[in-house]
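Section 5.1 Outputs to date
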Amino acid sequence: MPVGTLASVKSLTTDQLQQLGPEIILNNTYHLMLRPGIDLLEQLGGVHRFMNWDRAVLSDSGGFQVFSLSSIRKVREEGVEFRSHIDGSAHFLSPETSISIQQRMGVDIAMAFDECPAYGIAHAEVERSMELTHRWARRSLAARTGESALFGIVQGGIHHDLRKRSAEEIGAIEFDGVAIGGVSVGEPKEEMLDVMRFTAPLLPEDKPRYLMGVGTPEDLLDGVAAGIDMFDCVMPTRNARNGSLFTSLGKVAIKNARYANDQGPLDPNCSCTTCRTVSRAYLRHLYVTGEIAAMVYNTIHNVSFYLDLMRGIRQSIASNSLQAFRDAFLSRVTGGEVDA
């Protein structure tokens, strides 16, 4: 799922995004409740009409942003009091208000409100947070009144015993899908992969499994191999704006001088608009001169690359060749930056 936090996938128009072909994108409850505000967003017809998007939208519940962006917050059983990172104004989110906001946004998949514990805190504190998430999960489900699907979120930090308990508890609740939350919050990559590989097989087999906030192309392959169905990450768009481009032959740091007179396409195996119409030399020129078009071209390619990767993964599963697909992909993209 391309990330459209503020009802916009950064650097792309809705029309450009539709041409790339994602079936679903992600919006964010926390950010949209602050700007433009849920009353105005509902008045304007919800997120689909607001951004002229006729495909599916999943919304993050706002829980992660409350804990990562709000410097002043107070957590209690009822919910979280916090101050906006924008202007310091006071707000309150609970399972009930989060679900209400997501339903008023008109999303297709809403997420249960959860608490995301910081990496490195004590086992007992992670356990306390996890149990609060479980209570909030039940309240989130009870608060649903609309047609949006609702996913629960498994927490538990890096602790296998807590992840197992959380997977059992959330998996037993009548959610439409189950997510693994609380990863990519500062832990080393190997610990993230360990949590994912341990937790994914514990989730219900008959519901979508969603790994939140991950990750690199290699992470997606590892996640699918472990049984994950859905992913979101800002990496394709953020890296694009920073000139770090994913290709079928490896990464390209487009600012490097080696591309100054490179007339070849960014990725000879890609059919996106960027790779069909402009050269590496032109992309480098746009980037080093600070042209806005650099972000547009780069983002078109990175999002296209991720979507093509997922299409390839789906096709390999259908043909029972996922391992061969993974091995071939990794052999191409590992080994340093692409040569001119």
